[in-house]
Design brief:
By secondary structure, the protein is mostly helical. It has twelve helices and no strands. The longest helix has 23 residues. The two termini are 18 Å apart.
Length: 207
């Protein structure tokens, strides 16, 4: 986990330090869904999901909210830290990547709407990362939707995904406004994360 954090988190965090000005969230999303049409391989290869999965596993284990030994999506560890071996695992990883991207977009909306110019910068970063047109359109649609945290919480299938989504949200924003801090609290409540797990993720991600 330390190696993954060192190699991946620094680069992603530096890209996300000023999402509105630099299209940083686009660079992070590109790491998650880049690599052409095969978004699963792009996500795993980019290392972003591996880092988020590692943070989630450590947080849930340390915070007593892991769902039993061998109960992670990949058995002993979450998918993302290991390549999917079956079609079901591929589908599960695809779903996780989708929810993680939604979490980051929602976080970017937390202190107001994502403006047209920011959307253009984000989509530009996606294009640079080799993201296909269909995925670019999907991201644009998600950015255009009003923030609905309750609906997003209902999509989260388990604590593993909840922890990954929370950690991903910290990559998307600087967390320097009351609206963003309040949003993170509401996200934790909506997805069922306990305070100990949230505290671990915050510390791990440098918040």
């Amino acid at each position: 986990l330390d190696g993954i954090l060192g190699a991946v988190k620094g680069g992603l965090n530096s890209a996300a330090q000023n999402p509105a000005a630099a299209g940083g969230i686009g660079a992070v999303l590109g790491s998650l869904v880049g690599g052409g049409s095969d978004s699963v391989k792009g996500a795993v290869g980019g290392g972003a999901l591996a880092m988020l999965a590692g943070v989630a596993m450590k947080a849930l284990t340390s915070g007593g909210q892991a769902e039993g030994a061998g109960a992670f999506s990949g058995g002993d560890m979450p998918l993302g830290m290991k390549a999917p071996e079956t079609p079901d695992e591929e589908q599960a990883l695809e779903q996780t990547a989708s929810l993680v991207v939604k979490a980051m977009i929602n976080a970017a909306k937390s202190d107001g709407e994502i403006g047209p110019k920011e959307m253009e910068r984000i989509v530009g970063k996606l294009k640079e990362s080799g993201v296909d047109d269909g995925t670019q359109h999907w991201v644009m649609m998600e950015m255009s939707k009003p923030l609905d945290l309750d609906a997003f919480g209902a999509e989260i299938p388990n604590m593993e995904t909840a922890a990954e989504a929370y950690a991903a949200s910290l990559l998307a924003i600087e967390v320097d406004t009351d609206a963003e801090r309040q949003y993170l609290q509401q996200l934790a409540q909506a997805t069922g994360l306990n305070p100990t797990v949230v505290q671990y993720i915050n510390q791990t991600m440098g918040l």
